[in-house]
Write a structure and sequence with these properties.
Blueprint (H helix, E strand, L loop, with lengths): L6 E4 L6 E3 L3 H10 L5 H8 L1 H7 L5 H11 L6 H9 L2 E3 L1 H10 L4 E6 L5 H7 L8 E4 H4 L6 H11 L6 E5 L2 H10 L2 E4 L6 H7 L6
Parallel strand pairs: 1-4, 1-6, 4-5, 6-7
Antiparallel strand pairs: 2-3
Helix pairs in contact: 1-5, 2-3, 3-4
InterPro entries: HAD-like_sf (IPR036412), HAD-SF_hydro_IA (IPR006439), HAD_sf (IPR023214)
Pfam families: Hydrolase
Protein name: HAD family phosphatase
Length: about 200
């Protein structure tokens, strides 16, 4: 028999915060001669992007590299907000987190640079969660088992008492390997119903 759920853990990018408008990135891709989607791949998913998410370089150092990579010079100050301006918080999920907070611990595990806490504060998300675990602060990224194990220790929970929600199948598999219950998120998913199926109250 499964343990009753005591904690719900969320991913940020692709779940709580999603890119709804790619136009800011598309403008720069056209200017820089890049294919659609290539800019995100370079900034976030290149080796330098992963180094920043592992905390090997700072967020500022990542953007300095981006500036050099594309010879942006003074235009970096315009490039950065354009890169992020299509991102928006899912307010429906935030409302759900608020309801969950009445009965459960809530936490974040995010593959992100050392700007994560500032970003969450800017989005007014930091106050919604009991615990934030960021890859840059821990020196390792999902789906590494240790980042899930660290989160469980800090929450004071065993894996079977927790649900982990992420949009990346690899991260879901990593959490399952540690024993967490999981939900693979998509924007069309009725997350409240999925949680209710696991015995989580969302009223």
């Amino acid at each position: 028999m499964n343990e009753p759920i005591q904690a719900i853990i969320f991913d940020v990018g692709g779940v709580l915060v999603r890119t709804h408008d790619q136009s800011g990135r598309r403008v720069w891709e056209e200017r820089l001669g890049l294919a659609p989607g290539q800019l995100e791949a370079i900034v976030l998913n290149s080796e330098m992007g992963h180094r920043a998410q592992r905390g090997e370089i700072s967020d500022d150092e990542l953007w300095a590299w981006v500036s050099q990579r594309f010879s942006l010079g003074d235009e970096l100050d315009a490039f950065r907000p354009d890169f992020w301006r299509g991102d928006a918080v899912d307010q429906g999920l935030v409302a759900l987190v608020g309801r969950l907070n009445r009965r459960y611990q809530t936490a974040i595990i995010s593959n992100a640079t050392d700007a994560l806490l500032t970003t969450l504060e800017d989005y007014q998300l930091l106050v919604e969660f009991d615990l934030v675990v960021g890859s840059a602060y821990e020196g390792l990224m999902k789906p590494a088992p240790a980042i899930f194990e660290t989160t469980l220790i800090r929450l004071g929970r065993v894996a079977a008492e927790t649900v982990f929600i992420d949009d990346a199948p690899a991260n879901i598999a990593g959490a399952q390997a540690v024993g967490l219950q999981t939900i693979l998120f998509t924007p069309a998913l009725d997350l409240a119903a999925e949680l209710a199926a696991l015995g989580v109250r969302t009223d």
